[in-house]
Amino acid sequence: MEESKTNTKYMVLTKGIIIAALYLIFVSGLEILLSLTGLGPQHSEFQVKTSAYKIGSYTRETIINIIYLLSGIGILYKQVLARKLALIILVISTFFSASGIAWTITKGPPSLNVWLLSFLIIGLWNAIWFYLIYRAKPTETLDKTTLGDGWFKTLTVHKVGGQIKESNRKTKNLVLTRGIKIAAWYLIVLGGLDIINLLIEYVVFQNPEFQAQSSYFKFGRYTRVSIICVIELFSGIGILYKKVWAKKWALTILVINTIYSTYSFAWSFAKGSPSFNVWLLSFFIVGLWNAMFFYLIFKAKLTETIEKT
Fold it and tell me: Of 70, 230, 272, 274, which has the fewest CB atoms closer than 10 Å, so is most exposed?
């Protein structure tokens, strides 16, 4: 038996902070879909810009939206870091959102008065969410952990605002071995690369066969790929935060990813419609690659936590 003591901090989820977190998630999801499907505002001044400029613009917006999404979900899981990220990104996004609103109102280069009005509106709107998140109180946690037989049993005491509050509950977490960390970072990098690849494909490489498809087909593909990318990112980050649900999501998305990655790999390899042998070869390569990470995640052990609050 081994014993250790650790101090951690979590957030207290009030009604206000929950509403703010859900707002961050909703806005980020909506913005990602609009940017990837091309249904958002399109200005002639932007369309004549170079591909490099467009990629930079789309990448910046996507990064901001992903941070919004991660901050919202992190807050719901009581992570103090998510609160800090949310406050920072709300300030940064105010400037870019004000610019977007100004251009949308005037449908062209805005005047100084429109800029100021847009900044005032967005600034006041974001200030509401900033206040709700800023006033959230952290919870100080003291953990006494006993290790035995591959399981962790933890007695946890929470201190909020100088007062001790007591209750009992059981939770389960993942044990972070080197293998599970490698698999988690693979999912994060994979999700990020898939998003970048999608942006480059949307802005630079206009496949004539794909461009000839209907708007509904394009919307469906961009939506599907976006959802897969987001799940890959969340699964990897969730595993690093020892969340059991992240393990289940990761195993599921690796199976789904194998199917779609095989499809993309076969088309890229054949540079057109692939033959049956190319399909089989692609499935074999992608399947073996993903099976390695599937095994690393599947064999991860769980921790049982008994909390007295």
Answer: 272
